[in-house]
Design brief:
The protein contains 3 helices and 2 strands. By secondary structure, the protein is mainly α.
């Protein structure tokens, strides 16, 4: 089980990313737009720098939905590899069966 403070911090980051997503997208478009002037690009770059660090989606960590484990996450299911194995053995994941050959 991950520390509750780390889980809470990650949840707060998700909220901040969502809050600033539209503004970040506009600034990023201004940076890559070939028709924008160098002054506009500079303004967009400075605008991006003024946003909070946690507004960047890269800073959000994928965590296990059940216990918050930060590594080995299977994105399709939202749980860690360890939790996935346990849930699959107990039959809690529909359509998942243990393979044998």
């Amino acid at each position: 089980m991950a520390k509750k403070s780390m889980i809470a911090k990650n949840e707060q980051r998700k909220v901040i990313v969502e809050r600033y997503a539209e503004k970040r997208l506009e600034l990023k478009k201004a940076l890559v737009n070939p028709e924008s002037t160098p002054a506009e690009r500079e303004a967009a770059r400075l605008g991006l720098q003024k946003l909070p660090r946690n507004a960047s989606p890269v800073r959000v960590r994928n965590r296990d939905a059940v216990d918050g484990r930060p590594r080995g996450i299977l994105t399709k299911f939202g749980v860690s590899r360890v939790r996935f194995r346990d849930m699959a053995h107990r039959g809690e994941l529909p359509g998942i069966t243990k393979s044998s050959w």
